[in-house]
Amino acid sequence: MSSLAELDRQVVTCRRCPRLVAWREEVARVRRASFADQEYWGRPLPGFGDPNAHLVVLGLAPAAHGGNRTGRIFTGDRSGDWLFAALWRAGYANQPESVSRDDGLTLTDCYVTASVRCAPPANRPLPSERDNCLPYFVAELKLLGRVRVIVCLGGFAWEAALRVLGPVRPRPKFAHGALFELGGYTLLGCYHVSQQNTFTGRLTEQMLDDVFTRARELSHG
Questions:
Q1: Using one digit for the tens of pLDDT, what is the confidence trace for 177-219?
Q2: Burial of 18 (C-beta count, 10 Å sphere; 0-12/13-18/19+)
Q3: 4-219: what fold?
C-alpha cells in the first residue's frame, strides 16, 4: 500500500463480510425516520485525520445511523459528540462537533479509525468480521509512520490492537487508563464513548480529558 488515499479506496469497496454488507446496505435503504431525507453512505468507512499524527484513536465500528449515514467514523452520533468535543478540548480538533463529512472538521496530530469498518447488527461484530478488517488497521499503522500512542476505546478495540501488534502472553487486560507498550506503540485504554457509558456516568468528560492529556504526554515524551 503506497498511500492512505489508496488504502481508503480499498476500504470503501470492501465486501469481505456478507452479514455486514447486507446489514449496512439495509440500514441505508430503510433509514431512520429522522434522517429519511438524507442519502446514507452505506459502505465501509476509512479512517481519517492527520497523516503525521502521533496519536491514533481506535474505536469499535461505525454506528448504523452515525458513520454509516455520514460516511465518517464517529460523525453524526452521540458517541462522536463526546469524542470530538474531547479532542477539541485537548487541542487535537479545530471544532467541538462533527455532523457531516464536509463540516470543516480537521484533526491535528491525531487520526481516528475503527477496528471494524462496517456498521454491525446490534453493534456486535463477529470475531471473523474483526479479523477480516484488521489488515486495514495494519496498513494504516504502516502508513502513519509517526504514531506512538493508540487510545483504545473499549475492550473490543483493545483486543483488536493486541491482535495486530502481538502476540503477547500473558495478555494484558483492558481497563480504563490501562497502559501497555507493545511493538513500539503505547496502548492506552479508555472506556468507550457509548451512551451506555456516558449516560450512566461510567465515563465522564473529566475522565476522557485525562486520557487525552495522558496520550499527549506519552506521544511527545
A1: 999 999 999 999 999 999 999 999 999 999 999 999 999 999 9
A2: exposed
A3: Uracil-DNA Glycosylase, subunit E (3.40.470)
